[in-house]
């Protein structure tokens, strides 16, 4: 029964047992503290980091990654994984750029990019939920398919010469806040509500925490799986649109490897790869930690090679904490 | 926890809203005596790593501080890094672009902040290119022409060739292919059997060359590779049929392995792209611009031909007497820029 309790505890609803809630809170608190420590340390060591405009730079860098990580968080909470989100970023960026170039409309480009992401996510969800192929295999396959389709559509070279209106999507600011940052914040609020305040969110935790119990409780596991992979696809499509606009070209290889960054952010954010435990805020903070590290280590002029080492150590350390807390929760 | 996340999000948003006004103020106080100059390169390839030594040596001579950033071949990473460099208020940014079609918004931001941007090694397309202050890079069209002229010479103007291209759409591939076709047009006896990309890569070139040998058999008389790595891959494929060193094979870049193969006659001709000289001149141009000294808007380095006759001298200079070469490099760079002879390899030779 511990796993069932564990799953419900993670939903943070009132039935949760107190010790589990305390443990979870301290875990989240540890991640949040880690972000604060990085910010404070970098700000002390380097005045350039503390400059206010640098905050804008960090958030802008984090925005597309945050969309991917939050989508990945939903999938991982169900105990699955989505390796295709990176390639879907490239594919939807290419599709959006082609649409923009052919009809000059930013709105049409947005719809096309998001629709392509949705289609990719729907495909993943259908095969995972109904054909019962393991998510790792399905998304490994669709990762390659998406990259290939992107290369075919773009003839292997960047789709550039895009209209100003398309480029404006991700390069405009309102009141000093870049549009991608606004999208990130809105997406976070919506996804947080969805996960923490709706029945759907509770079912996502239940499916990941204990699929058998979820089935017995009458949860339609297939519908939940279909929904989370589609959601991850839509968010990847949006991220692809933002990146294509930001770099002024649709390039099929743009998102290659981003799926691993998204998984890393999710893990750093304290979401269990086994499913059923973690929060959407954790995913966002995971992304912010990585973006802050990238930015801060750059400003401190740490060699790119050492930066990779630091990030690797951080991921392992985060999971170490995660395992310890999970162990404590179960006792 | 959620409260914490909201506090972070709100705090960062407010701080950026306040801070953005500072981003648009023009920075005019460059430290001209000891400028801080960022090199944001597509990746730490062997070419860039070799060039880094030249930049670091030149920086020491000019009193500049260099910040190295590697984008790991990711366009979004490069955009983020440039935004970060702007908020750090470096004195100039030298970029080796990941992709020719990108970076316009970031270079615009740099201009607003009063930070000059220079491009090196690979080109950037318009409109981004028009926003930069200068370009230091190889004359890739000429390099493509030189290698094809050499091939025409080996084949006495008559024969069938295949062409291994760089990644389609990269400026190196586009310009080198243009140069190759320029010379092929002038030589009606030369026929191009096929051209395909092997993405600068040895293994891909090996596979492509093997397939071509299956497809065309003995019809192939010569192999034109747009860089040395692909020439090396093609040579391995030729070796399986006992053709290594027997069939004319040309390349570009003069990487260390490539020069060795010119020495032993496997690659018949290559063209030297001298990384320390090229990137070192990139730094020198940026520093001159900051100091208000005259500088070239476009410095194209002509690549010297590498043949069995001259390769030993150039190899020894770069790899055997390396310390001496780097000691004299700043003087060479200074004279090259002053005299407009950007591709000159040494002061001691004519």
Question: What composes the largest sheet of chain B?
Answer: 6 strands, parallel
- Binned strand content of chain A: under 5%
Please state how the strands of the largest beta sheet of chain B are arranged side by side: 2-1-3-4-5-11
Give the beta-strand count of chain A: 2
Count the DSSP helices of chain A. 15
Q: What is the residue-averaged pLDDT of chain A?
A: 87
Percentage of residues in strands of chain B: 15-25%
Backbone structural class of chain B: alpha/beta
Helix content of chain B: 40-55%
Number of strands of chain B: 12
SSE order of chain B, one letter for each helix or strand: HEHEHEHEEHEHEHEHEHEHEEHH
Describe this entry's structure for a reader.
The complex is a heterodimer of chains A (331) and B (350). In chain A, strands 1-2 form a two-stranded antiparallel sheet. Chain A has helices at residues 2-10, 18-45, 47-50, 52-77, 85-103, 106-130, 135-154, 164-171, 179-197, 199-209, 211-216, 221-246, 258-268, 280-299, 304-330; strands spanning 173-174, 177-178. By secondary structure, chain A is mainly α. In chain A, a hairpin with a 2-residue loop joins strand 1 (173-174) and strand 2 (177-178). Chain B has 12 helices and 12 strands. Chain B is globular, with a radius of gyration of 22 Å. In chain B, helix 9 packs antiparallel against helix 11 (311-320). Chain B has a 6-stranded parallel sheet, with helices on both faces. Chain B has helices at residues 2-23, 46-62, 75-88, 104-112, 140-154, 171-186, 202-216, 228-239, 256-263, 275-290, 311-320, 322-339, and strands at 36-41, 65-70, 92-96, 117-120, 134-138, 159-165, 190-197, 222-225, 249-250, 270-271, 298-301, 305-306. The longest helix of chain B has 22 residues, at 2-23. Chain B is an alpha/beta fold and 350 residues long. The interface between A and B is large, with 59 and 47 residues.
């Amino acid at each position: 029964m511990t796993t069932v309790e564990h799953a419900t505890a993670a939903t943070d609803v009132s039935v949760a047992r107190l010790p589990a809630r305390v443990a979870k809170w301290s875990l989240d608190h540890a991640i949040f503290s880690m972000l604060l420590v990085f910010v404070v340390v970098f700000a002390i060591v380097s005045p350039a980091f503390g400059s206010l405009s640098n905050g804008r730079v960090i958030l802008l860098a984090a925005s597309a990654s945050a969309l991917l990580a939050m989508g990945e968080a939903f999938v991982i909470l169900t105990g699955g994984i989505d390796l295709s989100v990176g390639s879907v970023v490239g594919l939807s960026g290419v599709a959006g750029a082609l649409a923009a170039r052919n009809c000059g409309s930013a709105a049409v480009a947005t719809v096309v990019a998001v629709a392509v992401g949705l289609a990719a996510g729907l495909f993943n969800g259908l095969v995972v939920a109904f054909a019962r192929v393991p998510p790792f295999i399905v998304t490994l396959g669709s990762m390659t398919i998406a990259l290939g389709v992107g290369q075919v559509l773009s003839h292997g070279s960047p789709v550039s010469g895009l209209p100003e209106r398309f480029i404006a999507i991700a390069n405009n600011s309102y009141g000093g806040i870049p549009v991608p940052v606004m999208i990130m914040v809105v997406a976070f609020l919506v996804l947080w509500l969805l996960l923490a305040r709706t029945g759907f969110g509770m079912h996502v935790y239940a499916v990941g925490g204990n699929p058998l119990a979820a089935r017995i409780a009458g949860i339609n596991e297939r519908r939940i799986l279909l929904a989370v992979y589609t959601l991850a696809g839509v968010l990847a499509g949006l991220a692809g649109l933002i990146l294509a606009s930001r770099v002024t070209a649709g390039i099929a290889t743009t998102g290659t490897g981003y799926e691993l960054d998204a998984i890393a952010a999710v893990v750093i954010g304290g979401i269990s790869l086994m499913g059923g435990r973690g929060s959407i805020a954790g995913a966002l903070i995971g992304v912010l930690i990585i973006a802050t590290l990238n930015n801060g280590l750059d400003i401190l002029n740490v060699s790119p090679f050492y930066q990779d080492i630091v990030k690797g150590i951080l991921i392992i350390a985060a999971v170490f904490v995660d395992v310890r807390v999970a162990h404590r929760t179960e006792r | 926890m959620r409260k914490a996340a909201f506090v972070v999000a709100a705090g960062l948003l407010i701080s950026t809203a306040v801070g953005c006004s500072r981003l648009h103020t023009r920075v005019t106080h460059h430290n001209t005596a000891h400028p801080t100059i960022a090199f944001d390169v597509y990746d730490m390839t062997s070419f860039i790593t070799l060039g880094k030594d030249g930049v670091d040596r030149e920086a020491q001579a000019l009193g500049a501080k260099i910040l190295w950033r590697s984008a790991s071949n990711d366009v979004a990473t490069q955009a983020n890094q440039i935004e970060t460099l702007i908020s750090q208020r470096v004195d100039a940014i030298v970029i080796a672009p990941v992709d020719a079609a990108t970076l316009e918004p970031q270079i615009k931001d740099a201009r607003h902040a009063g930070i000059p941007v220079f491009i090196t090694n690979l080109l950037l397309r318009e409109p981004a290119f028009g926003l930069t202050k200068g370009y230091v890079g190889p004359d890739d069209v000429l390099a493509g022409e030189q290698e094809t002229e050499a091939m025409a010479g080996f084949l006495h103007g008559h024969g069938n060739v295949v062409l291994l291209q760089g990644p389609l759409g990269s400026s190196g591939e586009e310009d080198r292919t243009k140069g190759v076709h320029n010379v092929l047009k002038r030589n009606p006896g030369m026929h191009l059997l096929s051209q395909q990309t092997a993405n600068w890569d040895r293994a891909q070139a090996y596979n492509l060359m093997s397939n071509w040998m299956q497809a065309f058999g003995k019809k192939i008389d010569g192999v034109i590779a747009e860089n040395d790595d692909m020439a090396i891959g093609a040579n391995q494929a030729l070796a399986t049929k006992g053709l290594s060193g027997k069939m004319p094979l040309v390349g570009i870049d003069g990487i260390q392995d490539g020069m060795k193969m010119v020495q032993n006659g496997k690659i018949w001709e290559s063209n030297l792209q001298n990384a320390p000289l090229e990137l070192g001149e990139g730094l020198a141009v940026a520093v001159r611009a900051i100091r208000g000294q005259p500088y070239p808007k476009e410095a194209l380095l002509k690549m010297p031909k590498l043949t069995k006759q001259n390769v030993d001298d150039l190899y020894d200079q770069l790899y055997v007497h390396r310390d001496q070469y780097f000691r004299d490099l700043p003087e060479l760079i200074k004279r090259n820029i002053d005299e407009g002879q950007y591709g000159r390899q040494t002061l001691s030779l004519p």
